[in-house]
Every structure is written in structure tokens, then in C-alpha cells.
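We examine the record.

___
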Amino acid sequence: MNNSLIRNNATIACEIVENACFEASMHSYPKGEIILRHLRDTNETAIVLEGTVLLINVNSDGQKSMIDICREGDAFGAGIFPEHGMGACYALAKTACSIAYVDYNKLIHSCEKSCDRHSSLIDELLGSAARRSIAHIGILSRRTIREKLLMALDYFLDTAQKTEQKLPVSLSELADYICCDRSAMMRELKRLNDDKTIISRGNRITVLRSPEGLL
């Protein structure tokens, strides 16, 4: 993902927190803590100010799948989460996190002051969530593990840099995100190392050849 987009998301999040009409409240969570147990039941939109949050779905058979990875400036919760078609979903702090909560009704309705930035901030926040969803669908729609993996690397990393970068998740979590068996993904990672497409050390990746050109 382009670093400028991440910085823009973070700027938007700060503006929402600092804008008095949103009446945001802040909370901090340690690594591993469940932030929201039932995403569908909340009337608040959560905005990540610091850290990484995993959104996990549990289906009727008890199987878990990762539906989103939220980083600084990303939003989840009311207005972001689909109301239908999912099982029991919760938000988990992948790292220590700082989260701002905004009442969804205050977020989507113009305040009495009719702030110039209110509507544009909402559009940018919801637009960012839509882009994450579209990117994830694009990854999952690929037919092979190699293609899914390359698209995920292209999404999470700045592939223009030929330096080592750290994925926002572990390799096991990456396998969950792209919906494939971890062992099969690890075999594909080895092939990508062998053909000099990447150099990997755990979840630290150096991209040597642009994934976009290999798809």
C-alpha cells in the first residue's frame, strides 16, 4: 500500500478526533485484547489512532476467517461493518492500540455548525473502508495461492522500495487473510524466494520484482 495513503488516513483520523462536533472518546487496549465482541451490535464507529486491529469472523461451524486488517486511520464498526451475510464478528488488538469512538449518528449527520470539513471527512473515511474491502475482494478472487500472495504483498507493502519491510500481520494471519492453508502458502513463499521475486525472513519481506508485473 502506498505510504502516502496511510498518512492521509491518519490525518483524517486526527481531524475527526480534534473536531468538536464529533465528540470522539478515546480508549487504549493492550495487544491481544478483544476491542469489540460483537461488531454488528455497536452504534459507534471506531477509528484506529495507533496500532493494528484484526476483524475476525466466526461462522456457524466455528471456523475463523479474517475479514479486515485496520491500521492507523482506518475505521470499523457502525456504518463500516456489513449488517448481513456474516457470522459472529469481533475486533482484536493485533498490537497495543489507541481507538477513537464516534457515535455513528453524529458522524453521518451534519452538526449545527455545518462544518465545511464534516461531509468531506465522512466521505474520505468511508471511502477508505470501501477501498480496503475492494482490495480484499480482489485478492480473494485470484485463482492461485501465488496470485493471492503476490496481490497481498502488493497491497500491504510499498513494492517500489527494494528494502526489507514488515507485514502488519504474522504469516499465519496472512494465510487467514488470503483464505488458504498456511503450509501451502509457505511452499509458495519458498518458490517466490527461490525465483528471486522476494527475500523473506518470517514476515519481513524484501520485494525484488514488482508483484504487479507478475500477475
The helical segments are 3-18, 104-108, 118-140, 145-156, 171-177, 182-194. The chain is about 35% helix and 25% strand. The chain has two domains: 3-139, 144-214.
